[in-house]
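Dear colleague,

Thank you for sharing your sequence with our group. We've completed the structure prediction you requested, and as agreed, I am returning the results in plain text so they can be pasted directly into your records. Please verify that the sequence below matches your submission; if there's any discrepancy, let me know and we will rerun it promptly.
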Amino acid sequence: MKEGKIAKVSGPLVVAEGLENAKMYDLVKVGKEKLMGEIIELRGNTASIQVYEETEGLGPGDPVENTGEPLSVELGPGLLQSIYDGIQRPLEVLMEKAGDFLHRGIEAPGISRERKWPFKATASKGDKVVEGDILGTVQETTIIEHKIMVPPGVSGTLTDIKSGDFTVEDTIALVKSDDGKEHKLNMIQRWPVRKARPYKEKLPPKAPLITGQRVVDTFFPIAQGGTACVPGPFGSGKTVIQHQFARWSDAQIIIFIGCGERGNEMTEVLIDFPELIDPYTGEPLMKRTVLIANTSNMPVAAREASVYTGITIAEYFRDMGYSVALQADSTSRWAEAMREISGRLEEMPGEEGFPAYLGTRLASFYERAGKIKCLGSDDREGAVTVIGSVSPPGGDLSEPVVQNTLRVVKVFWGLVDWLAYQRHFPAIDWLISYSLYLDMIKQYWRKEVDPEFEELHDEAMAILQRESELKEIVRLIGVDALSTNERLVMEAAKSVREDFLQQHAYHPDDTFTSLKKQYLLLKLVLTFHHKAIEAVKRGVELKVILDAPVREKIAKAKYIPEEKLEEFNQIENEISEQLKAPSRVGEAAGAAQSSGGGE
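Please find the predicted structure tokens below.
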């Protein structure tokens, strides 16, 4: 194939002339070092290429070679426990080759060609197979069974299949299609990153993705196969909450994309994840995780590739029938890369200099999430849940990346700095956040947790909204202007905020809360509120209610271990006992004070 030549270099954008048979999104090798790039615009004889490595030293006349194929990822055993850069180069392998500092143009296959995997055939010779059918399995890690599937576009009769130890390129099966053509199948697939993988049917999301974060699971839940956006200003805890989702969500596979974030944040993931124990299996969390690191000091253009690489790997595990959670941190850095490339292409800018197609690109990424019926003869189902964080300058939620993201996602967790500064984690503002999956997930609560959970949720939200109204009165006139019942609402809202919503990310019993414990904890907070209202009607003084010793136990209830949930019933009985009659309330408070003074 005839080589082209560089005509112009402008940062990560290279313009080449003379590329024969060039197509949009073809993968090209630029310069003598064969730097990887992708064609993003064609005009007559010239092709504009975004290069995924530093372009320093390139100049007009340097060669450009077209591979004729789109940017693709390798899919097969060996993905899990790997850390890749934005274009699926394994960083550990590159470090062995080049040391701590990577050279330009260095290459390594995404999946090892030397390692042998124990393939166990589940299909038999003579079986009729279609695309997506499972031929056999490989125990990739102690907790994940990697299913080897018939690649899309292949169907026919199995003329040969064998179990044994094979490399990913060894032939494990032969399929003869109806037209007599023979296909040699191995354990590796290549798939273009910009093209969504096929499936039979998209299904409505019904079950929640349980994250163990109370403000998320109870107030603003996300469904398996759903999409969510986490915008917030610098320092509000976007990365921390993404790490919590990666650690504790009940997805079977975790894909974590560090897209343009600082290197120390990815370093934290690298150090923590191998040491963290998966709460569902008792094994290291890395055994079900793929990390894609494209940090802020790596080439800007590769941010786009990292996002597409991540979603394609997620779809591959989804096709096996797994539930996958993909975290992208953060899509703002990808949008900034698009803005830079668009400026160098001299395109007409949209709002705030971002390209006019910003919304379309974001939508095409998020729409690849979903719960689906997988290809194949069986009825297996898989799901990809996408959670993207957005970093708007100064926390301005009206800026284009946030607004375009909110048009396509169904869950909005709005992080605010004033909560973060109060050490309230997660710093999700309950007055601006929302979830459009709530109605579907309430049905799940009624069936799987408790029919009362839905009522508790609605009442707690109403209390928090009423508190925001009463706060205005308190600011203007003072707390003495409130009636006794309004004071009780303020106290109940404070309890919901501090005893339920606020969570300790590093406390062993508070970092993760099951749905059952979330229900019991919220019920405890609201039971005290109801009993307090009843006590006031019977003439009990407000001060006596607020000084009830059981309130301290309610505040500490979040630290009750999952295996001791019966303690919630004991505290509930104490609430009833202490708020039963005026004399009892006074006696309980007096006893608590005297015992406290004696100590």
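Summary note from our side: The CA atoms of residues 236 and 417 lie 5 Å apart.

Kind regards,
the structure core
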